Amino acid sequence: VCDQKFFSELTKEASDIAGYFSSRVQHLLHLHIAKGLHRYVLRLRQCFKNDRETLVQEGRILIKYITMNAIAVRKILKKYDKVHSSMNGENFKSKMQAEHIELLHSPWLIELGAFYLNSSGLDGSELLDGVRGHFSCDFNVTNAVMTLILPDSIKLEYDLTCAICLDFVFNPYALSCGHFFCKSCACSAASVMTFQGLKAASPESKCPICREVFGEGGYFLRLCHSRSLSTTGALLS
Q1: Residue 235 has what pLDDT?
Q2: Where in the numbering of this chain does the RING-type domain appear (predicted)?
Q3: Fewest Cβ atoms closer than 10 Å to its Cβ: which of 67, 107, 145, 148?
Q4: 29 to each of 35, 38, 182, 184, 217, how far by Cα in Å?
Q5: Contact 226, 173 (CB under 8 A)
Q6: Under 8 Å between Cβ of 151 and 136
Q7: Percentage of the chain surpassing pLDDT 90?
């Protein structure tokens, strides 16, 4: 009963953190890659206010937020296993990954890394206030691998090769399972036309890699259009 209540509460907290993080990153990218009249208004505002620096600062805060929470969850689970002499904490980490609420495996973290690569004045590594260690983001053009070095010696590598066409992801979309593909490749795998989009796919459509149904009820409830990632590909290809 104790285990059930503890892990139930931790699951809720992790879900809330992941949801808040994704919503803030989406908002940040909406401002970063605005279109049409909104883009014109933002450009006009830059004559009077440095919105770019504001966005960069927001990115730093989000990196700090997700890193501190990920470290906290990891230490809580490690302490739980030590106190109870069990492996339930380790098993729970695997469950979090399976349910796509593991904080450092969110496609939005990749988006945030791409945003940093596309933002001027962010070369090399930098310190984040209140967090031990440095943050850095690097992209290997040859291998199409993005590397994030987070505080507390956390190193994450993301292969940005589309598993279908085996090229750098172009106009990428992340499915609810966390795997991402070129939009045209994902649509082809789901047997729909590119202009129709993935939401027109059959409820039985599955991820080409893990075979998980695209989204709850067959719809792409957590579909993520990786806009900053597209910009990164265009700049570095």
Answers
A1: 42
A2: 162-211
A3: 145
A4: 11, 13, 19, 22, 27
A5: yes
A6: no
A7: 5
Kindly state the tokens that stand for 120: 């001027």
Q: Tokens representing 136? A: 């850095």
Give the pLDDT confidence score for residue 38 in this predicted structure. Answer: 54
What pLDDT, in 10s, does the model give residues 154-192? 788 888 888 899 988 888 887 777 788 888 898 898 888
Task: Report how far residue 94's alpha carbon sits from residue 73's, in angstroms, rounded to the nearest whole number.
Answer: 13
Whole-structure pTM value: 0.71
